[in-house]
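Q: For a teaching session next week I want to show students how multiple molecules come together into a single three-dimensional assembly. I've collected the sequence lines for a complex. Could you give me the predicted structure tokens for the whole thing so I can convert them for display?
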Amino acid sequence: MKVFFLRTEYFGATTEGGSLAVTKGFTDGLLRLGHEPIVAANRVLPLSEKVKQYTIPYSEFFTNLPEVLFFPYNRKSFREAKKIVEREQPNFLYQRHSIFNYAGALLKRELGIPFLLQVEGSEVWVKKNWGKTYFTKALEWSEEIQFEQADAIIVVSSVLKSQLIGLGVPPEKITVVPNGVDAEKYSPDISGENIRKKFGLEEKFVIGYAGTFGHWHGITVLANSVKKIVGEIPNAHFLLIGDGVLRGEVEAILRRDSVERAVTITGMVPSADVPEYLAACNALVISAINNPDVPFFQSPIKLFEYMAMQKPVIASRVGQIQEVIEDGVNGLLVEENNPAELAEKICQLARDPALCERLSKAARRNAVEKYTWQENVRAVINLYEQLRK
Amino acid sequence: MARSETALLLLVSGNGARILQAHGFSPSGIDVVKIDEKNFASPKVILRLIRAKPYRAVYFGCDRLSAHRFSFIQKAFIALTTRRGGIVDELGTTSTYNFFTFLLAETPKFILELLVSILVVSWFHIQIFFDKRAMGKARR
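A: Of course. Below is the structure for the complete assembly, covering every listed component.
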């Protein structure tokens, strides 16, 4: 089956991050299941050589004013994608929802191609809460057109499904398909010894965190838990893999608590190296917190990566995380925004190697059975097959 | 206030260590602060960071200069503060701040972009108004 993956978001020269992980994971999943992915994006992406790629670049003229560059891109991406559809004759279009873009809706109207829209969040909500929006009405309208015209909407969590229903999208149109993991790339067979040597962590109980230092990631909650953990487990060390706007705040907390020496912040590392960094850890943390006015609606890829690495996971009891992690079975859950409880659970793991082993094995088993990219692709293909009936 | 020997790197994207290495900056002589593109909408935040110390120069860091946005605004921040610095990327490329280039080349280009943007924004709103009537449904 030929699947046309249309990625219209602007991402400059960024080669890392969740958005790219989704594109790579989904296209790899298609290949593994014997399908033929065709990708169009604003530049060539680091994907498998077997993926046929087209580029639809953004204008280089509109670079200084926010949001303006998206406006001409809407029609341009539609025109270019139309040529690709006519040439490649894919079975269906799979577009990642992005701001001010309704190329998928235009393609469906003009060519009648089945249109599946993948949504990781309402862009209206995201821009209002995490960014800044200047053309709110146009943003709402473009989202409305996409939601209306899509044959099916794939959301990453049940919380997000409720949010879209609240926006007036019919529930029967929405299917929940969580993000996934490449369980071969993220595997317990990977050694973390080089990383442990590099940072002098050979004798340490290493607690890892991988991801953006952003607001919903709760990285400051983890930083606030360090002092208590180091007080109880003297050989504890934190490996924070990533960077972001809250890095300064994290460093200030560590300085205030005089625990800088117990923490290594690596900065951004290439995604290909992340499994090795995770392998160097004894336990992995997701200290995510709820969003300001809606519950945590994301599907954090790092949760599935942690599980696939066969590591004990300590995670906040929010959104999809509490649906995936069963407390005491394949991980430990803690109340969100509670550094004291987080510290307590990390100490519990440090003192109980048998518990670590039991949780991590169950986590790996769970990830391989339910949360690989192949499973994600299977769900999308099944949905398309149902639409054809 | 006398200028210090320290420079400031405001990291918009990319890896700070790689940028320092590519440009031969000594980590001890430069403060690296991670910022977000959306911070440019709050000039006070950027100005506060730049004026935190009497920096000798201000650099904005990114992964690839060719795909970098808001260059004019960043040069304007440099023009308003240290008047030394530029935009640097992980590949070792620099777009150095120069008063005359800023005034005679970059400012007119920015004004042109502004004027064309007004047309583009207006045209998009006309298009989406009709597209919404044809393809959308009043929901909010």
